[in-house]
Specification:
Length: 398
């Protein structure tokens, strides 16, 4: 974690004294924003990103910039330039990404809250891998300026903290709303999808998930087993088409604004897989406009509608699923094909809420190894989801 050059005085406010580690793709005044990459210059940001400014005004203390997967294009936070993010909860295993440093800083006690970004699970995956809580709000709930983006369609600022209670506290300050009480669980309807959500669960994940469902049922929740019509693993291809097309435009403009080219920027990237990807974008190999339009204007709205129909038909307050299907994998080099399979596996259950612009929160439910419980809420119903998360957290920990 990179530290600020000078100490910051404590201020008053609802979050007074709360320590925040900011992911290195989000601007903090006076500190460089390099997205943990040597391809970007060591130039201090002129101003805080709006999300950081809101937290400062609420009394937070920025304790440093958190390490991450280079340029946010990955899900392990292993980085040959800035150093691999280590999982404090499970030494020798990955912390998840791309916001791995934000999660690790919270678990290690270096910060109370990690400010993250989430394009396809980047706040929630490391929360699940490190055994803490991670939140992606409804699209547009938090200000997104002052952040190095991958996708205009999917990027969102996210939060990581030890508990849902801390996330609720910070969300209240950012959204300017009153504090929430835990929901009453008796009679709450929860949708439990099958299909790819439950494919290939490793035993510790399956056992923790089934135990959590049993506890929620005992608390009076009504569990409705129902698949989302029209949703399958092909959503990842739609997501990737949109992200790669938009990333090429965003990063080409970023390079040209610095008087260089996307191809030259790619050559300076340290992580081999990320360097290869950016090199392909720089060579004009991004998905073409017609494929992008088909994904963005056709498949994406259809998936969003499928989720709206799902919630309407089930009457569910939230969808409940395992956050990721496997325990944190071991750190260390892996072949490119294995890296791609791991990426698909860890983002699989994260993408639906991203498509549907829904709020989504991950809660820790593991014991021997970190396991995350994923709750996806209705679009725009962030307060309802957070109040449910408060109740889940209290009941599951009892």
């Amino acid at each position: 974690m990179w530290l600020p050059e000078s100490p910051q005085p404590a201020t008053d406010g609802p979050l007074a004294g709360l320590r925040v580690a900011v992911k290195d793709n989000v601007d903090v005044a006076g500190m460089p924003t390099r997205a943990a990459s040597p391809a970007l210059p060591h130039v201090p940001a002129a101003a805080d990103a709006p999300a950081v400014a809101v937290l400062r005004a609420a009394g937070c203390r920025i304790v440093g910039k958190a390490n991450m997967h280079e340029l946010a294009f990955g899900i392990t936070s292993e980085n040959p330039w800035s150093g691999d993010v280590r999982n404090p909860r499970l030494p020798g295993h990955v912390a998840g990404g791309s916001s791995g440093g934000s999660a690790a800083a919270v678990v290690a006690g270096l910060a109370d809250v990690g400010l993250a970004s989430d394009t396809g699970g980047s706040a929630r995956i490391p929360a699940a891998m490190c055994g803490v809580a991670g939140f992606r709000p409804s699209t547009g709930r938090y200000p997104g300026d002052g952040m190095l983006r991958l996708s205009r369609a999917f990027d969102s600022v996210g939060l990581i903290a030890r508990t849902a209670a801390e996330i609720e506290l910070v969300d209240a300050a950012i959204a300017g709303r009153p504090r929430l009480e835990p929901a009453t669980l008796a009679g709450v309807r929860l949708a439990v999808p099958g299909g790819f959500y439950l494919d290939g669960l490793e035993p510790p994940v399956a056992q923790a998930f089934e135990a959590a469902l049993a506890r929620l049922s005992d608390a009076g929740c009504e569990l409705v087993e129902a698949d989302v019509a029209g949703l399958d693993a092909g959503a990842k291809d739609v997501h990737l088409t949109i992200v790669l097309h938009e990333a090429e435009q965003i990063w080409r403009a970023h390079a040209e604004a610095r008087g260089t080219t996307l191809r030259a920027l790619a050559a300076a990237i340290a992580t081999p897989q990320v360097r290869e990807l950016f090199a392909r974008l720089g060579a004009g190999e991004a998905p073409p406009e017609d494929a992008y339009r088909e994904a963005h204007d056709g498949a994406r709205p259809a998936l969003k509608q499928a989720f709206a129909d799902y919630f309407a038909e089930t009457g569910a307050a939230a969808l409940v699923a395992p956050a990721v299907p496997i325990a944190p994998p071991r750190s260390g080099p892996r072949p490119a094909e294995a890296e791609r399979r791991l990426f698909d596996l860890l983002t699989r259950n994260m993408l639906p809420a991203t498509f549907a612009e829904q709020p989504s929160i991950c809660l820790p439910i593991g014991s021997d190894v970190p396991v995350g419980l994923l709750l996806d809420g209705r679009p725009g119903h962030d307060e309802r989801l957070l109040s449910l998360a408060l109740a889940f957290e209290r009941h599951l920990a009892a």
